Amino acid sequence: YQRRVHGIVISKMWRNLYDQSCSTWSPQGRIFQIDYAMEAVKQGSISIGLRSDTHSLIVGLKRSPHEMAGYQEKVFKVDDHVGLAMSGLIVDGRLIVKILRNECLTYKTLYNSAHPIGRMITKLASKSQKKTMGERKRPFGVGMLIAGYDELGPHLYQTSPNAEYYEYYAFSIGAKSQPAKTYLEKNFKSFPTASLDNMILHGLKALKASEGEIELTFKNVSIGIVGKDQPFRLLTEEELKKNLLLLHQQQPSAEPMEVKPQLIHSNMHLINTFGKKKKKKKKSTLR
Fold first, then answer.
1. What is the dihedral of CA 147, 35, 179, 45, to 10 degrees?
2. Is the pLDDT of residue 11 over 70?
3. Three-state SS across the chain?
4. Strand pairing report for 55-61 and 47-51
5. Predicted confidence (pLDDT) per residue in 194-203, tens digit
6. pTM score, two decimals?
7. What CA–CA distance (Å, rounded) separates 219 from 75?
8. Please, is 113 exposed, middle or buried when counting C-beta atoms within 10 Å of its C-beta (0-12, 13-18, 19+)?
């Protein structure tokens, strides 16, 4: 609200008004608009990326808003040598896909070669940074895992709404991504020499570790691969079924727990003992 002191209008900003623009800092030194965008990435469906010495791949779990609705795409092709998976606001991610496609097309028209992956990530970070500096703008509410292959080999980059980016051997973003990170940390040393089929299985195992309650099918899983002499493409329905079947065969089956008859009888005895209600004695009316 506003109050007048000696003829001067003084505005008092409450704590909940520090998140109205990207140019407003909180007393703790934070920009809440960026924090909200980072939280949107954490609440999005999980995306996983990993790379070897020859290939780089990304795995995405697709969500459906309703039983009668289709699944929302998570993995997109940018160019023949690069693709990405996203978590967060998909509408912002589609805008970034359009921007990167225009950058690749412009670079190919001018230099007749594929756009270097590192330079592309730098341009994307610059655009993300501009979104965090204006009063009438907001950050992109989406995080990305970008997989590509160029003259330097395979790459896997992670970008965030605060314009930071890092290159990884393996990484995961989105909701329930910590179990997948734990799996990747335990196995990433074997990734450089792994074959493409083994890399796909590692990606599915990491996804299963985070989404154990959800049944993985060819409808809700999307995998994109790119590598040496391998343009970026999405796995077909038959390829997904084959790899999901291998994943199911390698998963250890849970053995049913044996229940001893003695325990059953003892438990029934306890139920019968404590389950009986004590009858209340009627008070005599005689005095």
1. -60
2. no
3. CEEEECCEEEECCCHHHCCCCCCCCCCCCCCHHHHHHHHHHHHCCCEEEEECCCEEEEEEECCCCCCCCCCCCCEEEEECCEEEEEEECHHHHHHHHHHHHHHHHHHHHHHCCCCCHHHHHHHHHHHHHHCCCCCCCCCCCEEEEEEEEECCEEEEEEECCCCCEEECCEEEECCCCHHHHHHHHHHHHHCCCCCHHHHHHHHHHHHHHHCCCCCCCCCCEEEEEEECCEEEEECCHHHHHHHHHHHHHHCCCCCCCCCCHHHHHHHHHHHHHHHCCCCCCCCCCCC
4. antiparallel
5. 999 999 999 9
6. 0.80
7. 13
8. exposed
**How many residues does this entry show for the chain?**
287
Identity of the residue numbered 140: F
